[in-house]
């Protein structure tokens, strides 16, 4: 096996093709995710006989390896070698678990790492009891403001950076504990990362934005949603408006994980997810 360099833009075409071929709904499997979190997760490539892998470390400093190819072409000896050096495979979708016999591997999942999956149609309509509170907030917002949404690009990314700075200041959390740096880089390298987004203005002032990208043919992932808290109901508006924009092309929205944050979990559950998509860890039995 040969270790390669840290993830960079020169790997973009290769990784985008691999992720497209894998056709997964897990939010981790996008070039933008790998690139933007390359330093936090210490990502580097590993070339093996049966394909390419990404090695990294989680927030606890535990090493893991992320497969980027069809595991059917790999033998058990390679699995053992990888796991001896890199701890465990992650994130593994449920459909890949049959590659790991129960008598040789331990499979586990953490609720805080599961992706929240929503029906785009439901998020676009806000109908039913689940959305009563969100619908009220949306109506209150629209009664006070006339938001204007335009496509996010290099021409208005400076306005996005202004919103991000306000969001960071209002959070009262240190920059190191938020995704400020990753979101800032996403705005600065927006087109290069092949991202999609909308920036919203209220009375010609930048107020909020949403950034995401397609995961596969029926699922769209939202990586970042930032806005000023002075506009009560703006998040409901942005999610609802985004769903309306995407509804004709994507059946599902992936709002990523809650990272064990109780407030974030409460918020994401309040939107009535269709399912929590588990991401599995696979390690060797002792």
Annotate the secondary structure layout.
Blueprint: E1 2-6, H1 12-22, H2 31-36, E2 44-48, E3 51-57, E4 63-67, H3 76-86, E5 88-92, E6 105-109, E7 115-119, H4 120-125, H5 132-144, E8 148-151, H6 157-171, H7 180-188, E9 196-202, E10 205-214, E11 219-227, H8 234-246, E12 252-254, H9 262-270, E13 275-277, E14 280-284
Parallel strand pairs: 4-5, 11-12
Antiparallel strand pairs: 1-2, 2-3, 3-4, 5-14, 6-14, 7-12, 7-13, 8-9, 9-10, 10-11
Task: Describe it.
The structure is a single chain. This protein is of the alpha+beta class. It folds into two domains: 2-112, Gcn5-related N-acetyltransferase (GNAT) (Aminopeptidase, 3-Layer(aba) Sandwich); 115-256, Gcn5-related N-acetyltransferase (GNAT) (Aminopeptidase). It has nine helices and 14 strands. The strands form two sheets. It has a seven-stranded mixed sheet with strand order 1-2-3-4-5-14-6, covered by helices on one side. Strands 8-9-10-11-12-7-13 form a seven-stranded mixed sheet. α6 runs antiparallel to α7 (180-188). The relative contact order is 0.18. The mean pLDDT is 93.
Summarize the structure.
With 286 residues, the chain is of the alpha+beta class. The protein has nine helices and 14 strands. It has two domains: 2-112, Aminopeptidase (3-Layer(aba) Sandwich); 115-256, Gcn5-related N-acetyltransferase (GNAT) (Aminopeptidase).
């Amino acid at each position: 096996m040969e270790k390669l360099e840290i993830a960079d833009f020169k790997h973009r075409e290769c990784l985008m093709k691999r992720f497209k071929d894998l056709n997964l709904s897990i939010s981790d499997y996008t070039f933008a995710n790998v690139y933007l979190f390359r330093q936090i997760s210490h990502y580097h490539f590993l070339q093996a006989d049966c394909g390419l892998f990404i090695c990294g470390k989680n927030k606890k400093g535990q090493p893991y390896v992320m497969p980027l190819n069809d595991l059917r072409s790999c033998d058990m000896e390679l699995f053992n070698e990888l796991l001896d050096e890199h701890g465990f495979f992650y994130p593994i979708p449920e459909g890949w678990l049959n590659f790991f016999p129960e008598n040789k591997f331990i499979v586990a999942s953490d609720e805080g790492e599961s992706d929240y999956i929503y029906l785009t149609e439901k998020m676009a309509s806000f109908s039913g009891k689940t959305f009563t509170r969100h619908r009220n907030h949306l109506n209150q917002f629209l009664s006070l403001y006339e938001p204007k949404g335009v496509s996010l690009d290099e021409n208005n990314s400076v306005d996005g950076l202004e919103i991000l700075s306000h969001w960071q200041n209002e959070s009262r959390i240190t920059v190191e504990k938020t995704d400020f740096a990753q979101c800032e880089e996403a705005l600065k390298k927006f087109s290069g990362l092949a991202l999609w987004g909308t920036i919203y203005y209220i009375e010609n002032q930048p107020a909020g934005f949403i950034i995401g990208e397609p995961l596969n043919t029926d699922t769209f992932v939202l990586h970042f949603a930032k806005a000023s808290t002075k506009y009560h109901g703006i998040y409901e508006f942005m999610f609802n408006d985004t769903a309306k924009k995407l509804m004709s092309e994507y059946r599902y929205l992936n709002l990523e994980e809650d990272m064990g944050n109780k407030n974030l979990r409460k918020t994401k559950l309040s939107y009535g997810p269709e399912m929590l998509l588990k991401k599995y860890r696979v390690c060797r039995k002792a």
